[in-house]
């Protein structure tokens, strides 16, 4: 088992190989924390020599024997993905078939266009449209104060209108950068524009406060990249907060947990 950094050290991939030469690949990327994930793999070497087909057993031993958190969970994600890759290759079956088969033939995707530099957004969106995208996602704003001038929000509304004017649907990522007062204001300002979704209106440690925003507007709420287990998703699902769940397979303990969340 080995890990591989991809410059500029943002991505971390995992290579696992069985005694009979089957190689599986996984991803343990945790943005900005590559060295921490590499350190966490010192605890995963204990699984060398264990039967690779016993994915759930390996998963449970590590997941139930470790504190939850982004570093250890991302390390487990990479190993788990690699083990599923090995199982599919060993049996000559794609992983999606091992998990029960597909439920759709096509899926709509969006193109990321940034947004911290407002002057670049429209040009980036036009490039995405030329590539064939019909939807884009942009940052809402840079960091704003706890209670800031409404002027910092009007620019976001104007950028969304510009993108819609060239025929694109728009999702807006708040990145959890707002405190509740500003997040509520921006969500209400954007609602008449009917964006595809707003993402992480607040940090994902605030299910009650995000529920308040969800009940305030009709805009779909997306979140989940910083939730690592099905138990982390539970309070949001119980409060009917999430319209679009976004678990990240390289953070949420791999394909095994991703399937449970779904």
Automatic annotation (TrEMBL):
GO terms for biological process: amino acid catabolic process. It holds the Pfam family MR_MLE_N. GO terms for molecular function: lyase activity. It comes from the Eukaryota. Keywords: Lyase. NCBIfam families: PRK14017.1. Its cofactor is Mg(2+). SMART domains: MR_MLE. Residues 118-220 form the Mandelate racemase/muconate lactonizing enzyme C-terminal domain. PROSITE patterns: MR_MLE_1 (PS00908), MR_MLE_2 (PS00909). The keyword Lyase applies. This is Enolase C-terminal domain-like protein. The keyword Oxidoreductase does not apply. It comes from Dendrothele bispora (strain CBS 962.96). InterPro entries: DgoD-like, Enolase-like_C_sf, Enolase-like_N, Enolase_C-like, Mandel_Rmase/mucon_lact_enz_CS, Mandelate_racemase_C, Mandelate_racemase_N_dom.
